[in-house]
């Protein structure tokens, strides 16, 4: 880091020394002892403007307090059948680590349906995975690899992406906004694989709308991305949908090593951790059913613009397909 950024970190740390409880306590849950790295993330998200980064960080702390985010890892999604339904329709997992020690998160964008529970359950699940990553996985990785590890790598599988994804855009924009405002700069790189034409058409339009900082992190890889990803991680850490050409098919979700599965070690450890935390925090009272309600943010202008653009491009793509199908039908009749 340069002199300017070091000075900005020093200034923001000075401002954070002045916050009082309960913000101070939740700030400790965020930084986990990595103070400079944490404030640097918020500074990067606000182009190293100290005043804007300070407002962003304080707003995030207030969001955490108002929504009891510090307690979200003690609030399991029950009954277990509902949790399994969420996992089957919100495909995410951890497949291993990069060669630098960064956890590799696999996300099934194309095959996630988000249709088995209410929006609040999916938001709750997403935030729980974020918090588990920050409070358990990253500290554990830092210890395992003997160096501070504060970010992860995400591999996004576009297999199965269809026009029906239009119905998911609002929820995905909400989740993205939560991440942008409260978990900035936690992802080191995004690798997009198994890309169908429908995504390629959208990406050409959306890419220029992204901030340069975000755009630099995104790489669209050829096919399942196996060869490129093996440059940054070992074969055992590849998500199951990257292990061979064509491995992004729907059947691969049921194959051995499927990191989306509730039976995968990552999900077993997460599920057991939340269950144990719930017993510690509420040892007498039975766990209440119902989602952990989190105030849903208004999507930022940039996020809304991108969502509208994706929706527009998908609709154009759908219209072109319908016209093409109609023309094919006419040809068949003519013959």
UniProtKB/TrEMBL annotation:
Residue ranges of every copy of the CRAL-TRIO domain listed in the record: 79-239
Gene3D superfamilies in alphabetical order: CRAL-TRIO lipid binding domain (3.40.525.10)
Family matches, as InterPro entries: CRAL-TRIO_dom, CRAL-TRIO_dom_sf, CRAL/TRIO_N_dom, CRAL/TRIO_N_dom_sf
Lineage: superkingdom: Eukaryota
Pfam families the UniProt entry points to: CRAL_TRIO (PF00650), CRAL_TRIO_N (PF03765)
SUPFAM superfamilies: CRAL/TRIO domain, CRAL/TRIO N-terminal domain
PROSITE patterns from the UniProt entry: CRAL_TRIO (PS50191)
Classification via SMART domains: CRAL_TRIO_N, SEC14
Name of the protein described by the UniProt record: CRAL-TRIO domain-containing protein
Source organism (scientific name): Juglans regia (English walnut)
């Amino acid at each position: 880091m340069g002199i300017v950024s070091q000075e900005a970190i020093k200034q923001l740390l000075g401002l954070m020394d002045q916050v009082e409880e309960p913000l101070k306590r939740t700030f400790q849950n965020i930084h986990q002892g990595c103070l400079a790295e944490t404030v640097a993330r918020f500074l990067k998200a606000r182009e190293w403007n100290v005043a804007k980064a300070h407002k962003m960080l304080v707003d995030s702390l207030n969001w955490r307090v108002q929504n009891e985010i510090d307690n979200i890892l003690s609030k399991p999604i029950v009954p277990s059948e509902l949790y399994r339904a969420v996992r089957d329709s919100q495909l995410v997992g951890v497949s291993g680590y990069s060669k630098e020690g960064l956890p590799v998160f696999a996300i099934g964008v194309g095959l996630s349906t988000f249709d088995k529970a209410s929006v609040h359950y999916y938001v709750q699940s997403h935030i729980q995975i974020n918090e588990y990553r920050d409070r358990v996985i990253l500290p554990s990785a830092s210890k395992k690899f003997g160096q501070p590890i504060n970010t992860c790598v995400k591999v996004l599988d576009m297999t199965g992406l269809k026009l029906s994804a239009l119905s998911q855009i609002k929820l995905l924009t909400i989740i993205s906004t939560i991440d942008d405002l409260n978990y900035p700069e936690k992802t080191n790189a995004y690798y997009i694989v198994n890309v169908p034409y429908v995504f390629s058409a959208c990406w050409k339009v959306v890419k220029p709308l992204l901030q340069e900082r975000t755009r630099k992190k995104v790489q669209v890889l050829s096919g399942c991305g196996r060869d490129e990803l093996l440059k940054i991680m070992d074969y055992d850490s590849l998500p199951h949908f990257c292990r061979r050409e064509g491995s992004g098919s729907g059947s691969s979700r049921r194959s051995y090593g499927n990191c989306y599965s509730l039976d995968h070690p990552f999900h077993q450890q997460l599920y057991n951790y939340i269950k144990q935390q719930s017993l510690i925090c509420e040892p007498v009272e039975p766990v209440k059913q119902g989602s952990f309600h989190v105030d849903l943010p208004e999507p930022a202008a940039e996020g809304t613009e991108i969502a509208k653009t994706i929706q527009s491009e998908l609709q154009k793509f759908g219209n072109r397909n319908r016209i093409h199908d109609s023309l094919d039908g006419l040809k068949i009749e003519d013959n």
